[in-house]
Amino acid sequence: MLRAYTPGEFYCELTRGGAAQPVRDRLAAVPADELRRRTAEAEEELHDRGITFTVYSDENAVDRVLPFDPIPRVLSAEEWDVVERGVCQRVAAINLLLNDLYHGQRILKDGVIPAELVLGNANYRTAMQGLDLPHGTYVHICGTDVVRDGNGRFLVLEDNARTPSGVSYVVENRHMMQRAFPDLLEGIGLRPVDEYGQRLLAALREVAPQGATVTNPQVVLLSPGTYNSAFFEHVFLAREMGVPLVEGRDLVVDDQDRVYMRTTAGVARVEVIYRRIDDDFLDPEAFRPDSLLGVPGLMRAYRAGKVTLANAVGTGVADDKAIYAYMPRVIRYYLGQDPILSNVETHICREPEALRYTLEHLEELVVKPVGESGGYGITIGPRATREQIEACRAALKADPANYISQPCLDLSVAPTLAGDQVEPRHVDLRPFAVTGVKTWVLPGGLTRVALRKGSLIVNSSQGGGSKDTWVLG
Description:
This protein is α+β, with helices and mostly antiparallel strands and 473 residues long. The protein has a domain at 346-407: Dna Ligase, domain 1 (2-Layer Sandwich). The protein contains 15 helices and 23 strands. It has helices spanning 13-16, 21-28, 32-48, 77-101, 106-109, 115-119, 167-180, 182-185, 196-206, 231-241, 298-303, 321-324, 327-335, 352-360, 386-398; strands spanning 52-54, 63-65, 68-75, 141-148, 154-160, 219-222, 245-246, 251-253, 259-263, 266-269, 272-275, 308-310, 342-343, 347-348, 365-369, 379-380, 403-407, 413-418, 421-430, 432-435, 439-441, 446-449, 465-471. The protein has a five-stranded mixed beta sheet with strand order 3-23-22-19-18. Strands 13-5-4-20-21 form a five-stranded mixed beta sheet. Strands 7-6-11-12 form a four-stranded parallel beta sheet. It starts with 12 loop residues before the first helix and ends with a strand.
């Protein structure tokens, strides 16, 4: 099936990377009918195992299986080394930035980042001001979205420092490949992904409240519940770590600001909470009073140093798309290093010159709202209709601070099974970094693929799928 495949003018790792030759050879030996049959069986198994996500906007199909493409994405050890070092550098800088923003704010006083961009940000939490966290770790789990351009350069598209999702698909995709395509994996020498749960548990225990006397701090995963779009992942991660999966109603804060979990045997002390609930809904005493998802008094316990929250409250100010534009300066400011992974060129529309440039070149640029995720609200100039361009222009003029713009990149592609043939589809990569005392990066990460021909939107909520990401040893 690869015989007729051509990536055109786009960069493709499978055809341009010499390290991928053994994988190409094995794929070439799989008959087309056999590839399609095994893929169909794999997707049926994903559904039977409940490996789904939820699309709230589609009333006819709420629970969906994330489409799975059987042709793996292959990265050499040298390519992965660049990604791994770049992600570690970026996570270190983000943690230093957050510690500074919630303490001395040196970076604002020195004018590296405009103060109003931070202090006026909806994700900046004054409740975090002056709070010291174990090891200065704010972002315990980070998902950094990375793309490759037409020259094969790795570039950071955005940071996800709040509650990044998708790691369950990384592990499940590998398990699926091991079951459905063992002949492709045998002897290739891939770096494993199975240790993520234990790595995460170890890191969370490292950041337990300082002074805790227990040798194995109790970790729980706090979920909004079964109707959350990522509930499968919450169940998966709790199982992988071997910790209780709880909802807000299962936790209680006592009059000494200690957190307890209700169990069938009574209450049990909790030291670390891996929370998958947004800041606004975390504690009705501190944030939204109408929230039924959170735990009353949780911020009191947090500020008293009686419990650790992962990720920390207020991390959203660091992964804001406007702050993203300043990350190269942030890395140089705190680490004294040049970025290993460059940003995509970004125009901050709150700045008059950037707004003027964006308005003059709308047909050439990608315009993104700074607070949205999931691929929503994006206008891709070269592919937008005249009506979409004019609607974007009006939105920019009405609220320029809500937008950034970037050039439309020639994103790399990967061979993808499309009906009866293999065709190029655009991909990105979300490596997952886990930080306790130090940072560890899961070898590979989530490769998302834009299944619609010509589409640049890889998000699952917008019709994207996923591939297994193979990092060669």
